[in-house]
Amino acid sequence: EKLTDENFEDVISQHVKKIAETGATHVALGTPYDSEFIPFINKWVIEARQNNLNVWFRGNFSGWEGWFGYERIGRFEHTIMVERFILENPEIFEDGDIFTSCTECENGGPGDPRATGDITGFRNFLIEEYQVTKDAFEKINKKVDSNFYSMNGDVAYLIMDKDTTEKLGGVVVMDHYVERPAELASNIEELIVRSGGRVILGELGAPIPDIHGTMTEYEQALWIDNALSELSKLDGVVGINYWTSFGGTTSIWRSDGSEKSAVSVLSKYYTPSELQGKVINELGRPIKNASVIANSKIAKTDKSGTYTILIAPSVRELEVRSQGYEDKILNINNDSSESIILSKSNENIMFKFQKWLYSMFKP
Question: Do 185 and 230 contact (CB within 8 A), yes or no?
Fold first, then answer.
């Protein structure tokens, strides 16, 4: 509906600029891949590049679900069209982009595998398209991830077994909406174990009225904060796409461009603080390969005992571990600005003597 609206370019510019300001690495675009929409894709892509964003192409061909009156297409035709789209439009892609050839595939084509029972066919289609798209990006010499096949949570549990996940590069993308943040984290943790892969949350957002009811802006921000806090504890979660920026009940910007409270919450997690420090023993000597742990993040100290780690806003404590030393837990705000001193688990006589000398003559 906006193809002939020249003023919409200003809207695109406004949206992409605000998304970039959150610290996001990508902007996710749902524009269809049919030839009539390519000029429109270009408008979004140009704005993304100008704002130093990569693009997650999350569209599809209109015929897959019959959008805009397009004639329905099947798997074979879809795969041919996907390959052609990549090879004929190399200029829209950059290294670091993501390309989903069939977003929420269960909604079109031969149908939802939960209803059709065609689990094997669905799996084989995703694997075949991944290989075709992977080869196509190699031909145009672009390093683009093309295995982010977003799907409903129930479909992910059904389709993404360990063998399928491995053949799709070890990545599972789940679009999932539930009432409570703790339930969200639990569901994803279960999927990590079931699939053996890393999980990208393809869509996260609140409120969905049928699930969350109505929310004030404060309640929306609190829910998002709690959800991101829970997700930051999971080692297997490697990406989160907030859905959506503008429009709909989950939006975090109003139609006039002003931001809701949730924007600052999202920005805190998209731009985590960086903590640097040093781990030493009681003789003041650096401890190499010590583990510094903040929720799911783990950093190793180098030969000088130095570490650097990203800290999510909800993290309050660091845990430090090293073989032969007692574990130590520190409060980030109060204790982690100075060198972290670890005590040996078992001190021999020589170490005790060295420690005594150090205490007597240290600067």
Answer: yes
Contact criterion met (CB below 8 Å) for 161 and 194: yes
Nearest residue to 74 (alpha-carbon basis) of 21, 38, 36, 128: 128
187-205 b/e (C-beta count within 10 Å ≥ 16 → b): bbbebbeebbbbbbbbbbb
- CA atoms within a 13 Å half-sphere pointing along the CA-CB vector of 224: 32
d(C-alpha 220, C-alpha 207), whole Å: 7
What is the SS3 assignment for 326?
coil
Divide the 363 residues of the chain into consecutive groups of 10 and give the mean pLDDT of each group: 83 95 96 94 96 98 96 97 98 98 97 97 98 98 97 96 97 97 96 97 96 96 96 93 94 94 96 90 88 90 93 89 91 70 79 65 63
Using the 8-state DSSP alphabet, how is residue 253 labeled? B
> DSSP string spanning 124-150?
HHHHHHHHHHHHHHHHTT---B----E
